[in-house]
Specification:
Two copies of one chain form a homodimer. By secondary structure, chain A is of the alpha/beta class. The first copy, chain A, has 14 helices and 16 strands. The first copy, chain A, has a seven-stranded parallel sheet with strand order 10-9-11-8-7-12-13, with helices on both faces. Chain A has a four-stranded parallel sheet with strand order 5-4-3-6, with helices on both faces. In chain A, helix 5 runs parallel beside helix 6.
C-alpha cells in the first residue's frame, strides 16, 4: 500500500462496505461463519501456537513481566477455550431485527423501533490474543464489521487469528473485509479515532493512558471499557463474617481485573471489631495495606502503611488495598461518589434501609448489596459474553454484550401521510 | 464571582450536588415543580414579555433576519403554549425507577436493571427562548439537573424564564441549583464541554459550526441534535400522485427544520412522467430548484439550476431543493447513505419488496415508506416532547425524549455471594 495513511482509512472503508452486507445477513449465515471459525481454531492450533511462540521469543517480549507474558501466552487448552467462547456466542440470540416498540399513531402510521447493527466497530486492546477472536465473534454475531488494533507484542498471534476469522467469514459467503487487523503507532490510532463516517464506535480496552489519549483526539464515538476503582463498604448493620468473605473475595479473587475492589470502607460503629481480622486475612494473602489513621490504630500486629491522597483514587490492579473508617453511611456514599469510577460498588449490611440508601445514592454501573463486586461481567450477568465493561453513562453502562453493539432504527409505514 | 472560569465550573458543581437530590425526588414532587412552573408562566407573563421586548429592541437584535427575529419573539399566546408544553410533560410517565430487567442468577443473586437519571445535562441552543423552559422541564421530569446555555440574543428573556424555573423548583422543595443559566463566549463553552465528572451529557442544538466546535474540544459525552439532509425517493412502483404530495410536504411544510427534505430522487422509470408536475408545484410554492442534467432536461418550463457537488450535501433549511434521477433503487440507497446525515429518509413505492430493500439498506434514525419525512419528532412519535433529534447511533437515535435522558444501573442483591 502506498502509505500508512492509506492503510488505516482503506481498511475502514472496506470494513464500511462490508458492514452493509453483514447488516443484512441472516442469523444462520452469521452463525455458520462462527461455527467454521470454531472449527478452524482446532484445525490450525499448531499454526496459532507457532505464531504465539514467535511472539513470545521476539525481542519486544523480552522485557515483559511474568503477568503480561502469561496474558500473551496461548496453549492448546486456551485455544480450545477460545473456540468454546465462539460456540457460546453462536448459542446467544441474534439481537439484530429485534422489535423494541410497535404502535399505530393516530394518523395511521405504523411505527416500529428495530434493533440494527452499529456498522463498523473498532476495538483497541492489549496483549491478550484471545480478545481478537472474542471481539470479532461478538461483532459478527451482532452484524457489525470490526477493525481490530491489538498490541504489537501479539502481532504474529493476532495475524494468524485474524486471518482465521476472515477465512471463516469468506467461507460462509460473507465479505472478509468485515474483519480488519491493524498494527501501527499512535498516529494510526489517531486516524482510526477520527475516521468519521467510516467508524461508528471505538472501544478502547486498556488503562487510563489510552483513555486520555483517545479523549484528546477522538471525533468518532468512543465507549470506554475503562478502569474500576471499586469499593466495599461494611455498614454498621453488617454480618461481619459475611463482610470479611466479601471484602476478601473482592480484593483477592482476581486482583488484576477491573471489578476487583481497591478500597475497603468500614463504619466506625464496627471498625474496632471488624478490622483486625480482615486486615490479618488480607495481609496473609499477600495484600499490601495502606489506611487512614483510625484504621492503622486498629490494625494490631498487621502492618498498614499511611494512605496518601492518591491512594484513594488509584486502581492498583494488584495485591494492594486502601482501608478507611467512615462515620456514617452518608459519608460512605459521598466517598464512593467522589473517588469511585462508577464501575462496581458494594455494601454489606443487614439493614434494608441502609441497602436502599446505598443503592439509590451511589452513582455506578453496578451496585451490590451483600455480594462481591467481582460479579460485574457479561457472562455472570447472563449476557453470554462481553467486549468489556462500560463505566460511562451513555448507550451502555456495565457489561458490553451483543445488544450494546447495536443501535435502533425507526421504520415507519404509511399510506400517503403528510404533515402539512 | 471572581472570574469567568469559576462561573461555569461553580455552576456545574452546584448542579452536580443538586442532581443527587433530584435523582432521589419522587414523581409527585417533580410534577409539583412543573405544575408551579406552568402557573408562574401565566402569572409572570408581562415580566417575560418586557424582557423579550428588551431583547428584540437590543443592539444585537438589530441585524437579525425576519426569520430569526420571529424565533426570538414571544407573545402571550406563545407563552401559554410553553405552559401547555410543561403540562404535557407532567402527564408523561416518569422514566426514573423503571425496571428494565429482573432475573435471579444461578448463584441466587437478584439482578435488576433500573432506569436512573444521567445527572447533569447541559443544553446549548439558539435564539428560541421557549427552549429554555422545554429543556428544563424535560430534564426535571427525568430527574436531571440542567445547565442551559442560550443565545446572547435572548439573554433577558432567558434570564426571566430561567429564574421562573428556579423559583418553581425551590417552591417544590427541590434545590434551585438544579437549573443553571450560563451566558458567555466560546471559552466558556469549552469549559462546559470539558467539565468531566460534573457534566454527564452535552446536547448542542444548532448547526454544523457548533457541532464541529464541540467535536474539537469536548471531553464530556456529547449527543448531537444535529442537521438533517433528508431525501425523498420516488420509486419506479410509486403512486405518483401520493409521491407528489409527500415530496411537496417534505420540502414545503416547514422548510426551516431538520426533518424537512433537501433532495428529491426519482427513478428513471418514472422521471419523465413524474418530474414536470412536481417541479411546477415546488416552483409555484417558491422553492428554488437545482438538479442534475436529466432532471433539467425533463423540467419543461420550470427553471432548474445546475446542481453543484456541494448541493447534494447541503441542508438548505429553506425553500431550495436538489433534484436527481437515479437508475435503480440500489443507486438511490447508495446515494442516501453517501450524502444523507442519518436523520429521516423516505421512499414512495407500491412494492413491498422495494420498501423492504430501502428500509433495510438505508442507515438512518427514521426510514419512511409512503409518508413524509416531517413526522420525525418526539410529539408525533408519541414520546410527548423532545429535546432534539439525534442523528448519532449511540444511546439515542431519533427524538430525544425523557427516556433518552436516562441511563441504567444494575442493582444486585445477594446473601453473601463471592466469586472465588
Amino acid at each position: 500500500m502506498a502509505s500508512a495513511t492509506l492503510t488505516v482509512l482503506e481498511a475502514c472503508e472496506a470494513a464500511k462496505r462490508a458492514s452493509r452486507v453483514l447488516a443484512g445477513a441472516d442469523t444462520a449465515r452469521k452463525d455458520g461463519a462462527l461455527e467454521r471459525l470454531a472449527e478452524l481454531l482446532g484445525e490450525r492450533a499448531s499454526a496459532i501456537l507457532d505464531a504465539n511462540a514467535a511472539d513470545l521469543a521476539g525481542e519486544r517480549a523480552a522485557g515483559l513481566t511474568d503477568a503480561l507474558r502469561d496474558r500473551l501466552t496461548l496453549t492448546e487448552a486456551r485455544i480450545a477455550a477460545i473456540a468454546d467462547g465462539v460456540r457460546a456466542i453462536i448459542a446467544l440470540p441474534d439481537p439484530v431485527g429485534e422489535q423494541l416498540e410497535r404502535r399505530t399513531l393516530a394518523n395511521g402510521l405504523d411505527l416500529r423501533k428495530l434493533r440494527v447493527p452499529l456498522g463498523v466497530v473498532a476495538v483497541i486492546y492489549e496483549a491478550r490474543p484471545n480478545v481478537t477472536v472474542d471481539c470479532a465473534a461478538l461483532c459478527l454475531k451482532s452484524g457489525n464489521a470490526i477493525v481490530l488494533r491489538g498490541s504489537s507484542y501479539a502481532e504474529r498471534s493476532n495475524a494468524v487469528l485474524g486471518g482465521l476469522v476472515r477465512e471463516a467469514v469468506a467461507e460462509a459467503g460473507l465479505p472478509e473485509d468485515a474483519v480488519a487487523l491493524l498494527g501501527g503507532d499512535r498516529a494510526e490510532l489517531e486516524q482510526l479515532a477520527t475516521a468519521e463516517g467510516l467508524v461508528d464506535l471505538v472501544i478502547p480496552r486498556g488503562g487510563e493512558g489510552l483513555k486520555q489519549a483517545l479523549k484528546a483526539v477522538a471525533t468518532v464515538p468512543v465507549m470506554f471499557a475503562a478502569a474500576g476503582n471499586c469499593h466495599v463498604y461494611v455498614d454498621a448493620a453488617a454480618d461481619l463474617e459475611m463482610a470479611r468473605r466479601i471484602a476478601f473475595d473482592a480484593k483477592v479473587d482476581r486482583p488484576g481485573v477491573c471489578n476487583s475492589a481497591e478500597t475497603l470502607l468500614v463504619s466506625s460503629a464496627v471498625a474496632e471489631q471488624f478490622l483486625p481480622r480482615v486486615l490479618a486475612d488480607l495481609s496473609a494473602a499477600g495484600v499490601e495495606l495502606v489506611g487512614d489513621d483510625r484504621t492503622r490504630q486498629l490494625a494490631g500486629d498487621v502492618i498498614v502503611g499511611e494512605a496518601t491522597e492518591a491512594d484513594w483514587d488509584t486502581e492498583y490492579l494488584g495485591l494492594k488495598m486502601t482501608v478507611g473508617v467512615v462515620e456514617s453511611l452518608a459519608a460512605a456514599v459521598e466517598h464512593v461518589n467522589d473517588h469511585g469510577t462508577g464501575h462496581s460498588e458494594a455494601i454489606v449490611t443487614g439493614s434494608e434501609a441502609a441497602a436502599a440508601e446505598f443503592t439509590d445514592g451511589v452513582d455506578a454501573a453496578a451496585v451490590y448489596v451483600n455480594a462481591s463486586t467481582r460479579f460485574t461481567d457479561g457472562f455472570e450477568f447472563g449476557l453470554g459474553a462481553e467486549i468489556g465493561n462500560s463505566t460511562q453513562k451513555l448507550h451502555a453502562r456495565g457489561p458490553i454484550g451483543l445488544r450494546e453493539l447495536t443501535t435502533t432504527k425507526y421504520v415507519v409505514h404509511g399510506d400517503g401521510q403528510v404533515r402539512g
